[in-house]
Fold this protein.
Amino acid sequence: MSIPTRRQGITALAAVLILAACAETGDAYYASIRIDNYPKADGPGEVMSDGEAESARRIAAIIEAHLVRLKSDYHETHLYRDAHPKATGCVDASFTINADIPPALRHGLFATPGRSFPAIVRFSNSNENPFRADSQPDGRGMAIKLFGLRPDEHPMTADPQASRAVTLAGAEPGNFSLAGQPAQDLIMISHPTFLVADAEGYRRMIGYADADNWMADLAAPVAALFAAGIPGIKSATETTSLTIDNPLSTRYWSMVPYQLGNSAVKFSVRLESLPQPQAVPDKSDPNFLTRVMSETLKKDGTRMTFLIQPRTSDTQSVEDSRIEWLEQDAPFYPVATITIPAQTFDTEGRRQACEALSYSPWHALQEHKPLGAVNRMRKAIYEAISAFRREG
Ligand code: HEM
């Protein structure tokens, strides 16, 4: 491969910039998106970047337009989530703080050893297509919703459509009867890093990925490289190339940091125990992950370990989501146990109730404030998109 000359480089850059003008969709919706109370960058390690709130507003508009297009592409009567639309299972669980949690980590939810929270855990596939076969490589999501907060514990933003979830949950036994109550959410994906350094880079990248014209399609890979850089492309490729046998035995990471006391931390979940022996999954079934989870939870429950990774150095970036905090530099500590009891979760009522749920990193106590540019943007975007999806 030859290295481009300066002139060729300038021509290529000019071409990308011209194509940029054709790339973005979402203009028709742009005016209706409001970004109120954009979060301050006042947590440990946070630095606000220029034009960040405006980028978030633009991204929310692109996602709304994308959702409308997907609804028509799939001839569906309701809007699925824009990201992680396919739930492989939505299960009842409990989340219990370990008796031996290190004293330095005892803040907020984790302040009291032995405290237990009823929870709903939604496992998902990342791809935008809610009907895609589970055997396809993809990122895998795990979103935990913890109920049982005390009256003095207030999430920083409330679930905007709680009442609808409650109505549907009426038909569902177990922890779904708590849907709509104030909750602390903990959201993870099956990879340790996300893909952008800043808000503007992400806006440019999804503007291309989502643009509905051939010129933008052509420019998308080059633009993605400009916007995310090699570490971002590496992270995106690794995230979306995972195949798994069982969502309950997969490892998950928060990807981006959160506050705990005066520190920034990331978190992760790994399997503790799975009933044995496990049957070999039949991957020709497009929904085999749901089948496998149903089989696992038919007779026996399972346990997963929740881990916290405190930041140990300023070189572990809070703002740049592409930078992994390596375990050898910043160890993870087990702090809680997630118990998923034996249950039947694969029912139509549960599927509907799960669709109506809304997870957000900002359904969080002040003590667990989401940190960094990606998380600040997510506040505005999840609020706008979650409400839009449920109204559609
Ligand atoms: C600026 C960056 C991001 C944007 C624009 C974005 C956007 C979204 C949107 C629009 C949804 C659907 C919300 C709804 O309709 O209720 C969603 C869901 C989700 N996102 Fe993100 N996201 C971002 C970053 C992340 C990161 C860093 C993670 C890493 C943990 C993540 C994990 C998830 C998961 C697991 C879900 C599904 C939650 C559920 O089960 O309901 N996202 N995201």
About this structure: Residues 59, 63, 81-84, 122, 124, 141, 143, 187-189, 194, 202, 254-256, 358-359, 374, 377-378, 381-382, 385-386, 389 surround protoporphyrin IX containing FE (CB under 6 Å).
